[in-house]
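Case study B.
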Amino acid sequence: MPPRISVPIKARLPSTLRVNASHPSVTKSLGRLSREALLSLALDWLDEYAIQNAVPYLLPEGDEEDEDMDDLYPPCRSVSELRQLYVNMRQLKGSKRDVVSRITEGDWRHGLTLFQLAMADFAYLDEHQTSQRWSSYQILPLQPPTRSTEEEDEEVLKVDKESLRVPRFHPATFLQQLQDQILPDVKAHYHFHRTANLPVLLLRIFVVHSGVNDSNALHTKSSGQEEASFDGSKTVYLAFPDGAPAIYVSRPTATGGTVPGDSKSLQTLIVEGVPKALSRARERYTLKSTNLQSRNLWALLDKRGSGRTNAAGGGWSIYVNEKEQKTPLDSALTLPPPSKDDSKGRKREWPMSQAQQEEKRAKVIAEARFGDSSTMDDGRGVERVEVVLQDPFPQQDLTGDLEEDVDGGSGDNPRRRSKVDTVLLQAQSTLDDEAADTTTSSTWTPPVKIAFTGSHVFAGIRQLVEAGMVDGERMPGWMTGEEGVTMGVVRHGRIRGFKGSGL
Amino acid sequence: MSTEAERLDEEIAALKADVSKARQQLAVETSTIVATAAGQTLLANDATLRTYAEKQAAHLQQNYHRIVTPVTSFKVIDPDPHAVDGGHVLALRFEAMTHGRYLHQYYVMLNRPYPHSKYLRVHRHTIPPAIPLAGFAARYLPSPKPDSETPPQQDLDRFARAVRREVARYHSRLGVMADLKRTLFGRHQEGGPVADDVVEVNMADLEAKQIALTWADGRIGRLVMDDNGQVTKMVVQGAEGRDWELEREVLASDDSTMEDVVRQLQQYAAREG
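Model:
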């Protein structure tokens, strides 16, 4: 065997690169799929467009007598035969373990390609759409550099607030540019995927820390020493919503062994590399965190998507609702609907009791505060909302001094906050500075952090309002979800930084 | 019996449909009667009906305003108890219409969050991200700088004009794309598409300024529109590289409109096909 030489280069990892079929990461990513998904995945691999990236192990031609009797999964002679075999397996009942071992020990015993692994991961993502935790970023245009000299590097470009450009996204160009941004000691494999029921384009980036881009980057069959490098690999997903200047980045997950602290730097790398990849000559962009994180992509699409719901959450959602929009040519006046409640009221022989009236009132208030948003079955739930309260502890009636010193969030305060804890620290430090500017320095302002968790936080709050547990009239606006953030700092009863306007 | 239950369900559904239809009818007829002069004299003595008539009149007046001006304003109260400026919100309504039909209304809500200042700020809106609202807001509704010597001036009028113009353009471009689809797909109904027919038309960017075309033989192309709907650029890529011939033929002049492009595309397909 001639010595294999690997030259460090900057190219991406090819899709056809094979990973040993017995590698734990292969069994892991196949093992978490259902039997049904595995079979359709295998059929996808054998599909015409994918086959060159997922060549199965077939019986070598002219080798027909030499069949190994011990072989549990005798290889097929042709792709179509194999395809038929998997179609037949669909009809049969069996465990998913059979399918996994059929794939890893039979038809792809010589290894699975990176392409196949990427497809397997996307099959899992399709099945478990909430398996990733996404952070949403806004794409903002930058001002063109003023100096064209070499000092340019030092110039920090500002966000061009007056720009009327809307960033455009072209997957192929983007990938090329992103590859240029990635350091030569990082090897990555990219795979685009479109999920049937989500208006996003997903990009999976599989990163290996290695200088070479052949199979040496992943493992060597003879020694197995370099498997460690594969263990340091990371998978990160980017989601590009259709028709929205936003990008959702998932939290990187380690495929093999965990390397603590590393995944964060990868995300930072992505957040720095992506805007450069989006930029073109004379058109530069930057990413800005929107303090919105969720496992539910629909929740992100609702607040940072292509629709009209982005900056009209909570009670403002009635202005989005198509049904309530009336053309001026419709002369009929819609009064508060002669609805079911009324007809019931007529039938009812006794007047409503106090409790019933309160219940009805709570429902009406919930309707006013939440509009059509935040219902239990809208599928746009966020699972965690964290806020830090910076308001002084209420000693008297709070409603008095609302209009005063509203400033603070509007100016040049840094709005980018990655974690609530850092926000909390920051809040404590700024508290000392701003102690004088609040009403009296003796006002006690305890740092309070509130976290709501659940399957659909804002629908839960709405239910509490409907049940009368939360006073819907005195409830602050951020509890309706209209600010469009899952992390924030509350001052004067509002999330700082005018988050709800979406600008 | 399941069939019996199904039959009853159908009957209930049909009856419910009847009821909602009748309600609609009632609403239309009531508003018509109340709006007439004769109706109003008849109602003059009934207190409840008179308030209804007043509401109806106000509604009609609002409709007239909305018909004659594409941007109308109204006031809303922010339900948030901590809202700035006592919850006073000024809302702008932008009408989007094409072909004599009202399609959508877009709203921009403005409030006054700055202390001791009457400057406005966008509070909520329903403008899609294809329209650079943030840019317009920064240009025409800048935030006040109390310390600077030349305070920036806000111009709500220009803001509303700019947003309306952009909304109208966006809808026109969407309309052009729909027309393109309709005319290009309309003709190859009989006998399936030939090689030179366009089989797919897609929006290629979020502003609807670029259109991706796919031909039946696998060629792909891009059309680029400018703000005013003129087609400025066209690229066609086939299996053997750029299809210069088609590009030249379709984009004959510098200021082709989409109608010209469609005509050329149809001629091209008809000639060879």
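Chain B has a mean pLDDT of 84. The remaining cases will be described in the next quarterly update.
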